[in-house]
Amino acid sequence: MLKTYAYPEFAHRPSTDQTGGRLRRHPVIVLGGGPVGLTAAIDLALRGVPVVLLDEDHTVSVGSRSVCSAKRTLEIWDRLGCAGPMVEKGVIWKTGKVFRRDREVYRFDLLPEAGHRMPAFINLQQYYVEEFLLRRASEAGVDIRWQEKVTKVEPHDDHVRLRVETPAGEYSLEAEWLIAADGARSLARRELGLAFEGQTFDDRFLIADVVMQADFPPERRFWFDPPFHPKQSTLLHMQADNVWRIDFQLGRDADPEEEKKPERVIPRLRAMLGEDTGFELEWVSVYTFQCRRLDRFRHGRVLFAGDAAHQVSPFGARGANSGVQDADNLAWKLKLVLDGTAPEALLDSYDAERVHAAKENLLNSTRSTDFITPKSPVSRAFRDAVLDLAERHPFARRLVNSGRLSVPAHYADSPLNTADGDAFDSAMAPGSPCADAPVTVDGRPGWLLHLLGGGFRLLCFGDAPGALDVDGVTVEPLAAGRDFEDAEGLVARRYDGRPGTAWLIRPDQHVAARWRSYDEGKVRAAVDRALAR
Ligand SMILES: Cc1cc2nc3c(=O)[nH]c(=O)nc-3n(C[C@H](O)[C@H](O)[C@H](O)COP(=O)(O)OP(=O)(O)OC[C@H]3O[C@@H](n4cnc5c(N)ncnc54)[C@H](O)[C@@H]3O)c2cc1C
């Protein structure tokens, strides 16, 4: 049991599927109630899709796992109505410092500009994140079934059948679509006989979560070869409730059982924190990690998301963050396919876009891991030379890799994009996630992303058309000067909003197309393209 957190207990309550003795088919079943399954379930439920979520556990994530939730993830959770309490509870940060021995080598600022509702990062323990998501899932009407372990996944052409084990016995149920968010050891993946390939790293890391009152600022600190832990690396993060996450690299030969013992852990912490700093151990574990992924994320009626689809090292905080972006990408597409408004081919774009994102995450994660844990004398010599140079020469600092932190994927090559015909001066392009900006509505302050919401939008600068129905899909215009005031001029600056400009935005707040002047025919064609029609 943790000192700062009391785990909730969720009882098993047999559903009518189990007690009714009749095999029922649901539109969507989400397998797994981690951050990814919960996000997908909330998004679908808020879009009006009845969702059943099955989880074998009786509580939220146990122990110390995800800490850092990134801006894009928070923007997604904000769209779903649950980021507020997370930001309030979490530790907000944006600065990172990298040290070599006891000297600072360089520092970075992950959000140097103002005018965004969400911070660059918050640090919040995964169990809190899941608790807030669960609260929202209940409000949204998700049918959450605890202590229901899926033991069999049987895919068919037009549905998936599941066998479920519960404290009240076994039962079967079916789904038109299954979202497999059952984590790194995914049963769904094994049941479908899918390879999960990549790299396994041998280095062991010790996680020590300690409760202490400390006056370190809320920033990420990373040490190469620190005096208190020579020849290895150490990472420090502040979390909620004055819990500090400290990661010690241990090397390949460390004995995990020995290293977890308080008599080994406490001296390491004393060496780092000083003899006078009082602390209590909250959690200790030793882990190794892998960087691997499925070849494809859509397998007929089974859609893989989160750790079930891809696994990365924790350096860069790309695990849950990228999984939540999978859910964000998938939910609107699945809703439109279920409604018959878009063809199943739209789900192939989930595959294309999120496999692209996973490749990017894996590349970054693997590179960071190679830099932090060099595998050969040559790569260690290179790493040390970079660190030597970085102490004196700014050009070498960008080569220092202590974990490139999670950023959202830009789906530049997505089949859903309409290519630019006009020139734009903006950091965004078709496929990019939308930038936020402050606005006012009826004199009250607000945010652009709130106004964009979760449907197709046409963000217009200058004259705006009325709502457009494109074969069952509504495109709502959102016009600067009419629907909102561009309070600080940042919407126009970030979207290069010269008069006449129109941006077509997808329901997951990614750019589908943009033009310098409005043309209804072009908008209709771009919507069809964004729906794979
Ligand atoms: C040390 C460490 C630090 C990390 N730090 C970060 C970080 O800072 N930022 C970040 O973004 N990520 C981080 N991660 C990664 C993050 O924890 C994972 O990426 C995230 O938990 C994946 O979420 P998920 O929902 O895909 O899977 P999980 O969280 O693993 O959830 C899977 C769920 O499925 C359920 N389940 C599994 N099998 C079955 C079954 N057969 N039947 C029913 N239910 C089942 C489980 O009970 C569980 O609730 C870290 C991980 C580690 C280990």
What percentage of amino acids are in beta strands?
25-35%
Number of helices: 14
Instruction: Find the count of extended strands (DSSP E, 2+ residues).
Output: 26
What kind of assembly state do the chains in view correspond to? single chain
Bound ligand species: flavin-adenine dinucleotide
Query: Could you say which structural class the secondary elements and strand pairing correspond to?
Result: alpha+beta
Gap between N and C termini: 52 Å
Radius of gyration over C-alpha positions, nearest whole angstrom = 24 Å
Mean pLDDT: 95
- Outline type: globular
Query: What is the share of helical residues?
Result: 25-40%
Q: Can you summarize the main beta sheet?
A: 8 strands, mixed
In the predicted model, the low-confidence regions spanning at least 5 consecutive residues are none
Q: Can you put this structure into words, describing what you see?
A:
The chain has 533 residues and is of the alpha+beta class. Helix content is 29%, strand content 29%. It has helices at 16-19, 35-46, 71-79, 83-89, 126-140, 187-191, 256-259, 262-273, 319-339, 345-372, 377-392, 448-452, 490-494, 520-530; strands at 25-31, 51-54, 68-70, 91-93, 95-100, 103-109, 121-123, 143-145, 149-155, 160-166, 169-180, 197-211, 220-224, 233-238, 243-251, 280-293, 298-299, 302-304, 310-311, 438-441, 444-447, 456-461, 468-470, 473-480, 502-505, 511-515. The strands form five sheets. Strands 1, 2, 8, 9, 10, 11, 17 and 18 form an eight-stranded mixed beta sheet that branches. An eight-stranded mixed beta sheet has the order 6-5-13-14-15-12-16-19. It has a five-stranded mixed beta sheet with strand order 23-24-22-25-26, with helices on one face. A hairpin with a 2-residue loop joins β20 and β21 (444-447). The longest helix is centred in the C-terminal third of the chain and has 28 residues, at 345-372. It is globular and about 70 Å long. The mean pLDDT is 95. The site of flavin-adenine dinucleotide has 34 residues, from α2, β9 and α9.
